[in-house]
Amino acid sequence: QSALTQPRSVSGSPGQSVTISCTGTSSDVGGYNYVSWYQQHPGKAPKLMIYDVSKRPSGVPDRFSGSKSGNTASLTISGLQAEDEADYYCCSYAGSYTVFGGGTKLTVL
Amino acid sequence: EVQLVESGGGLVQPGRSLRLSCAASGFTFDDYAMHWVRQAPGKGLEWVSGISWNSGSIGYADSVKGRFTISRDNAKNSLYLQMNSLRAEDTALYYCAKGRPGGISGSLFDYWGQGTLVTVSS
What we know:
The complex is a heterodimer. By secondary structure, chain A is mostly beta strands. Chain A is 0% helix and 44% strand. In chain A, the strands form 2 sheets. In chain A, strands 1, 3, 4, 7, 8 and 9 form a 6-stranded mixed β-sheet that branches. In chain A, strands 2-6-5 form a 3-stranded antiparallel β-sheet, with no helix packed on it. In chain A, strand 7 (86-93) and strand 8 (98-100) form a beta hairpin. Chain B has strands at residues 3-7, 10-12, 18-25, 32-39, 45-51, 58-60, 68-73, 78-83, 92-101, 111-112, 116-120. Chain B starts with a strand and ends with a strand. The A-B interface holds A 1, 3, 32, 34-36, 38, 40, 45-48, 51-52, 57, 89, 91-93, 96-103 and B 35, 37, 44-47, 50, 59-63, 95, 105-110, 112-115.
């Protein structure tokens, strides 16, 4: 049950786009279309941003999008805003368990 | 409005036990899988355990298998986590999270509580 691999940090200026990668294996990310992404602001509970690779819950801006290719999933945030600065975690189903990535800190410059 | 309220955390000595509870409201509790996810201080998220709507399907992370037991009482709209043989590395904020309708397959946690802090220390 190894954690998925995410970059520790990414950054971008307001209005720009950033992409956060999430690399797993054929036993988790590559094996199921059950990748989700969570946003967490300091001291707050995580918030679901993307599920089933690319679906957005109601209320999540369409600036947030998800995709997957092979064993790597990606979260893209376009039109960066100051309030997007947070930690982002990917998550994948892996058959008999669920595994998270280590998290990526997004800094809006 | 969906609400998940965890309770039962606290300071406990290594080797001892603790039982966490999660009171759910605002949705039809017995239609959904439920999960526990934890976050050690300053660290990332770790899935701990999940239980299907009817308790027929249960899963655990390897790190807690054999020590933790998840359960639910649909009549009371409540989720539980019995934690035995606690270790220092179990110190974390424990979140209750609402899953998909039915089973625990598929990683989707669409509502989270605010968490209850468990500290394992002598």
